[in-house]
């Protein structure tokens, strides 16, 4: 018997200069986005709007950040779960990460930079802000395409204005063995859309609907776009929020970034009436994302098979996510 063809994510091209709403190119990619998110919940995105000098400097900047003393990194604190420094966990000893709230806003990045480097670090600040600003354009294109494909264009302005951006930068130490070790537990993201970018040390795996793990190997110039539970709930389950994890082997350090579009505190996520009907009954009660995060990181939330269903699921529906 021949070996099976390796599973791969769809690769979608957002680099066309004529990719503007209403064009044939736009409509073609929009259909591809919808199909990929229905089937996989994610895809590989080719996107050339991030200048090469920013791409080249993002990982040295992240390395410089993680090389800071632990006591300095611990000054990155946030009232919101998983928004500050995360690391030193025995369950995932290879992993640590840092969050930058409103990373597309220069003043916000500068404030954190000055906390970590009291003498200032303008190159780090500019790299993080520029990268986040450019990648946020891809996020907004994808979200616009999603709403258009579901016939929800009238909600676009409210939808975009209801979120801000968190950039999480992540470091995974090589386990120094050829035996595969857990870098980050299997989970679904809890936000709207996540856009991942990595150095060329692989490890990301995405689970398909059949329960098989796909080894994700993006090109140096591509991103992985993935939807989270908040968008899954808002679209009333029309799209798929995939489980994913990081598995590590070898000696090399893996660095990655995740730009997360996050619902603002106080904004209530509620599925529009257009996506609720007899064939698609309401799956989730309205909820506040920040309060949901608080539950997710509680003992009960961590025990739940699906924190989202446990927290705000409407009873008596078949949960398949």
From TrEMBL:
<dbReference type="InterPro" id="IPR005123">
    <property type="entry name" value="Oxoglu/Fe-dep_dioxygenase_dom"/>
</dbReference>
<dbReference type="InterPro" id="IPR044861">
    <property type="entry name" value="IPNS-like_FE2OG_OXY"/>
</dbReference>
<dbReference type="GO" id="GO:0046872">
    <property type="term" value="F:metal ion binding"/>
</dbReference>
<dbReference type="InterPro" id="IPR027443">
    <property type="entry name" value="IPNS-like_sf"/>
</dbReference>
<keyword id="KW-0408">Iron</keyword>
<comment type="function">
    <text>Probable 2-oxoglutarate-dependent dioxygenase that may be involved in glucosinolates biosynthesis. May play a role in the production of aliphatic glucosinolates.</text>
</comment>
<feature type="domain" description="Fe2OG dioxygenase">
    <location>
        <begin position="162"/>
        <end position="263"/>
    </location>
</feature>
<dbReference type="InterPro" id="IPR050231">
    <property type="entry name" value="Iron_ascorbate_oxido_reductase"/>
</dbReference>
<comment type="similarity">
    <text>Belongs to the iron/ascorbate-dependent oxidoreductase family.</text>
</comment>
<dbReference type="Pfam" id="PF14226">
    <property type="entry name" value="DIOX_N"/>
</dbReference>
<dbReference type="Pfam" id="PF03171">
    <property type="entry name" value="2OG-FeII_Oxy"/>
</dbReference>
<keyword id="KW-0479">Metal-binding</keyword>
<dbReference type="GO" id="GO:0051213">
    <property type="term" value="F:dioxygenase activity"/>
</dbReference>
<protein>
    <recommendedName>
        <fullName>Fe2OG dioxygenase domain-containing protein</fullName>
    </recommendedName>
</protein>
<keyword id="KW-0560">Oxidoreductase</keyword>
<keyword id="KW-0223">Dioxygenase</keyword>
<dbReference type="InterPro" id="IPR026992">
    <property type="entry name" value="DIOX_N"/>
</dbReference>
């Amino acid at each position: 018997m021949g070996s099976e063809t390796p599973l791969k994510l769809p690769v979608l091209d957002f680099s066309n200069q004529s990719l503007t709403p209403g064009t044939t190119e736009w409509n073609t990619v929009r259909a591809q986005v919808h199909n990929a998110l229905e089937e996989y919940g994610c895809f590989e995105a080719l996107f050339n709007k991030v200048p090469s000098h920013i791409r080249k400097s993002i990982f040295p900047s992240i390395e410089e950040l993680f090389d800071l003393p632990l006591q300095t990194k611990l000054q990155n604190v946030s009232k919101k779960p998983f928004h500050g420094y995360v690391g030193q966990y025995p369950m995932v000893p290879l992993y640590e990460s840092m969050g930058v709230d409103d990373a597309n806003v220069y003043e916000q990045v500068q404030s954190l930079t000055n906390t970590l480097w009291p003498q200032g670090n303008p190159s780090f600040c500019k790299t993080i802000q520029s990268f986040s600003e450019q990648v946020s354009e891809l996020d907004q294109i994808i979200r616009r395409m999603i709403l258009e494909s579901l016939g929800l264009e009238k909600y676009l302005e409210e939808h975009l204005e209801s979120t801000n951006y968190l950039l999480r930068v992540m470091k995974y130490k090589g386990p120094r063995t050829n035996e595969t070790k857990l870098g980050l537990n299997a989970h679904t993201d809890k936000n709207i859309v996540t856009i991942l970018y990595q150095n060329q040390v692989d490890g990301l795996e995405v689970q398909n609907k059949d329960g098989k793990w796909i080894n994700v190997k993006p090109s140096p110039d591509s991103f992985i776009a993935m939807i989270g539970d908040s968008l899954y709930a808002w679209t009333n389950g029309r799209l798929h929020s995939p489980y994913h994890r990081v598995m590590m082997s070898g000696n090399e350090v893996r660095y990655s970034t995740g730009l997360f579009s996050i619902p603002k505190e106080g904004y209530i996520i509620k599925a529009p009436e257009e996506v609720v009907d007899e064939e698609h009954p309401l799956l989730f009660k309205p909820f506040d994302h920040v309060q949901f995060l608080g539950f997710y990181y509680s003992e009960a939330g961590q025990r739940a098979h699906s924190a989202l269903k446990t927290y705000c699921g409407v009873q008596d529906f078949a949960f398949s996510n």
